[in-house]
Amino acid sequence: MPTRSANAKWTGNLPDGNGTMRLESGAYEGAYSFRSRFEDGDGSNPEELIGAAHAGCFSMALSNVLDEAGFDPESVETTADVTLRMLESGPAITKVHLTATAHVPEIDEDTFQEHAEAAKEGCPVSKALAGTEITLEASLA
User: Fold this and answer.
1) What is the pLDDT of residue 51?
2) How far apart are CA 107 and CA 91, in angstroms?
């Protein structure tokens, strides 16, 4: 499997500096700053990119788990809310809440929830965030 890469450059001190983050594929390049990360300033932040990665990974994982169980998922849409908190030890990502809606014909609610939990546990990004609380709210469309 390939190794993926991203690049970030930061200039200046923490409160007044700024930076850019770029994906190797060129699909995203954007600015980030202290304000965009810890306040409500313009630009992106690492947590937003982690959220995008987790939402994408979970959507793919759930589609795969459902397919392997003999279902035909038509769509899975996921939002990942990443919580950054200031702890005594410094800032930390403390929680990711996944909200997913799937359109899956011919599946009952209990079976769907079982597969959604399995996808949450098996998603590679969930595994990478093992030290973080990950919650899931999954529903059928």
Assistant:
1) 98
2) 41
Non-local CB neighbours of 57 within 8 Å, separated by 6+ positions: 123, 124, 125, 126
Cα dihedral 61, 64, 66, 69 sign: negative
Mean pLDDT of 102-111: 98
Record the tokens describing residue 135, joined without a space.
């919650």
The secondary structure of residue 27, as a DSSP letter, is S
pTM for this entry: 0.95
- Count Cβ atoms within 10 A of the Cβ of residue 27 and give its class: 0-12 exposed, 13-18 middle, 19 or more buried: exposed
Domain 46-140 CATH (choose: 3.30.1360.120, 3.30.300.20, 3.30.110.30, 3.90.600.10):
3.30.300.20
Q: What is the pLDDT of residue 1?
A: 85
Query: In the predicted model, what is the mean pLDDT of the chain?
Result: 97
Is the CB of residue 31 less than 8 Å from the CB of residue 20? Answer: yes
